Amino acid sequence: MSAEHDPSHEAPKLIADPATPKVGNDEEALIVGALRLVERGLLITVALMTVGAAAIEIWGVIGSRKIDLADILLMFLYTEVIGMIAVFYTGRGSPFIYPLFIAITALARLIVLQGKEMKPENIMFEAGAILVLAIAVVVIVRGGKS
Predict the structure, then answer these.
(1) Which of 12, 45, 50, 90 pairs with 56 at a CA distance of 20 to 30 A?
(2) What is the DSSP secondary-structure string of the chain?
(3) Does the keyword Membrane apply (predicted)?
(4) Domain that holds residue 140
(5) pTM beyond 0.70
């Protein structure tokens, strides 16, 4: 038997499952449209919840007449969530960067909140996590330009 007709050298043939439903262009457009509508609704819900949480936090700061670094970092978290929603709506920028910024800010806030009670090695671990996330942001930004 020659190598040209040797079945061991052939790529495996994929057999479609006859039970798998075929989706036409109209159905696909309907499904994609419905999913986009759900996505938009959830994004609006997240935006409203974020604005509400920020308003509650601002009200608490006004009531206490005291602003801490943790309060400012929390405001940055809310701002970054709103920025991430804006990126999803406008399509400008990378939607992957904002969750990384949110994680960096959340870790920084955690370090500030736990402060003196935190073990030094835990601070180093969290600082290392912030460094890894910052490197990931640089890689994504530089990778997107090339």
Answers:
(1) 90
(2) --GGG-GGGSPPPP---TTSPP--HHHHHHHHHHHHHHHHHHHHHHHHHHHHHHHHHHHHHHHHT---HHHHHHHHHHHHHHHHHHHHHH--S-TTHHHHHHHHHHHHHHHHHHGGGS-HHHHHHHHHHHHHHHHHHHHHHHHHH-
(3) yes
(4) 25-145
(5) no
Q: What type of residue is 141?
A: V
For the chain, how many structural domains are there in total? 1
Closest by CA to 144, choosing from 87, 82, 77, 86, is 87
Task: Please list the pLDDT of the chain residue by residue as tens digits (146 residues).
Answer: 544 555 555 555 556 566 666 667 888 889 999 999 999 999 999 999 999 999 999 999 999 999 998 899 899 999 989 988 998 888 777 778 889 999 999 999 888 888 778 888 999 999 999 999 999 999 998 887 66
User: How far is Cα 126 from Cα 49, in angstroms, rounded to an integer?
Assistant: 28
Read off the amino acid at residue 145: K
Classify the phi-psi angles of 8: left when phi > 0, otherwise alpha if psi is within -120 to 50, otherwise beta. Answer: alpha
Name every residue whose Cβ is closer than 8 Å to that of residue 69 and which is 6 or more positions away in sequence.
112
Structure-block tokens of residue 42 = 């959830």
